[in-house]
Each structure stands twice: as structure tokens, then as C-alpha cells.
Known about the structure:
The chain is mainly beta. The protein is 9% helix and 48% strand. It is globular and about 55 Å long.
Amino acid sequence: MFTLQMPRSGTKMIFAFILSSLLTIQAGVLVDEANCNGIKINGQYYDEEILKRDLDRPYSLAVDYSPNILYFSYNIKGTSDDEFRSARLNLITKEFSNIEGVNNGFAQTVDQKTHEVYIGGSDGIYKYDYATNNAELYAQKGSNIWHLYFNQSLYFSIFPTQVLYVLRDGNPSRFEYLEDTKVDHFVIDNENDIFFTNATGLYSVKAESKNATLYAENPVVRSLTTDKNGNVYVCLQDGIYAVRKPTLSLEKIYSIDDGFGLAFDNENNMVYADATKLVRLKLNLKNKCNS
């Protein structure tokens, strides 16, 4: 066994070389950061893309991933009372169309397997045909639909009671885990955990359980959604928040002035609404600052 001894002069030269290399690398990082443009979220840079302006409170955003079509509702200007209309926007071509045949279209959801689109109006749930741009009454005739969500089954709540129902084999019944709870927004995440909001807070419930866990008390929730990976995000009035399950908390990742809605496109880019427009935060794949 032996130890190789380096001459003192050689040690100094090696140390100087390593120090020089570290400074060069550090300088390179600083230069890159100084030239990184865009919006930084979770370490990645995004560009803001205005999808459509001059809308009044676009709400209840949902994306059909396969054709990359955004469905939403918005308030019709010039009416004495709030009256909503459902619409669609092609996220590739930016083609916009109002959806005909729904009375006061307010809530939208998509079955990602069949690409069937469901719209809730003031007189029931409609099924929408993209090819003809028409909708036909499907279920809950005469009910004022408040919220719609699809995950293997169609979930809905009715205004003003806001009790959550599930439609199975064409038959509605109260959702067993939240049968005595008012529900404003509702999603199921990638671990089959149930998240919902009402006037008192944002909660989660484990499947097969009725014990609710509080994440946030009395938040002004405008939208509750999941990304393509099943992670839960919340749009509050002041911005977009990620649900952090290990700490039972919300982490603000983007600020919005008067946020109204949130969804994700087929590349998992965020699409959000403020009081007057629809915006996409699109990952900049050409940005050298993105890993």
C-alpha cells in the first residue's frame, strides 16, 4: 500500500484550474439566468399567450385533450341579470364558436376516453356534438346545473342546494361520500382522493371514507381542476395554487388579477381565465434556460 504525493506546485496548479472552472460555470449560469425571458413556474419558463379577449367572466373551463378544444362559459353582456352561454375555442387554430341549444350554459366537463362533452344549463345536462355544434338534453331535465365533473362517471350538483350527485347507468343518486355536504367544485386526483370546495373551505376525502381533511379555510375558489397527471390545482381570485398533499397546504405558483377559471391543455400547459380574457401559459421549448 502506498500514497501518491503530489508536489506542492502541482497541487496549486490543480486547485487554480478547478477554481477557474467553477467560476466559469458560475458565470455561465448567471449569464443564462440574466437572459431567461418569460414566466418561471416550478423551474420552467413559460410564454404568455392571449387566446381570446373581450369576454365577461369566462368560467368553468374544460379541455378535450384529443382535439385540444377548450370549452367554457361566459356572461352575456348587456343583460340585467347574469346569463351565461357555453362556447368552444380550438387551442390550435384559435377558432371560436358559441354553442347552440343550451339554455344558460354554465358548466362543462369532458369524458377523455370517449371525448363526449357534457354541458350543464338551467334546465338540465346536455350532451354536445362537436361535429354539428349542437347539444341535446341528456339528463336531469328541469334541473339548474351548478357543477359538472367526469371521472369514470358523471358527477353534478344542482342549484341552489348544491348537493352532489353521480349518474350511474342513467340513474342519479347522491354521492355516498358527500351526501350531506354542499359542493361548489369537485375533482378526483391521481390517487383517487376526492377534493371539493364549499363556502367553508377546500377539503379532501379519501375513497371509502367520510372524514374530510381541511386544506384551506374560506378561500375564494373560482376553479378546482387536475392537470394531465392528475395533480390538483386551484384558481383563487388572486392566482393559481398547487395542492401540496404532504403538507396539506396550497402553494401559490402564479398571480392573477381576478382569476376565474383554470384548465390544462393536451401538453399540460395551464389555460386560465381572468375577468375579461383567456390566457395560456405555454412552455417555451426553445428557451435554453429550460432543462
